[in-house]
Sequence to fold (176 residues):
Amino acid sequence: MNINSTKFKDLKILKLKRFIDLRGNLVKTINKNYKSLKFNCFESYISISKKGAVRGLHGQLGKYSQSKIIYCIQGKFLDIAVDLRINSKTYGKVFKKIINSKNSVALLIPKGFAHGVVVLENNTILLNYSSSAHKPKQEYGINIKSINLNLGKLKLIISKKDKSFLSLNEFLKQKK
Fold:
């Protein structure tokens, strides 16, 4: 695995090793020996989504904040993370990256970020490892429509809950 830094402190792009032979391919996504990642998986989720599906932007408050590793098993999605760490140089800034099942890339998103995805192909399968338990009462969100995504005419499928969230600007004003 190659670990690449971004301009966002502790947000990493992980280039995973893919092993291919006549049976197909194999990708190792997590290994406890990757100590430089500083990540312990508490729970994981798999989502299977339609093109245009939006999941997020979500996060958890304070001591319930989660680090995540996000990987695409099948298909393609736009990954979005917003730095909400008040003392960070990139506070309020948005990280975006297209992830697909062909490029063997995963993202490590540290605690203190709101995170979400926009699915770009039907039947996209996303694997999400989280460092701590999901606590619905500690969850917050940001309306994804408040972020410039440059997705052209893609019709977004957004849950009622995710539509109800504040815009990024409203959220940042409220947080100060």
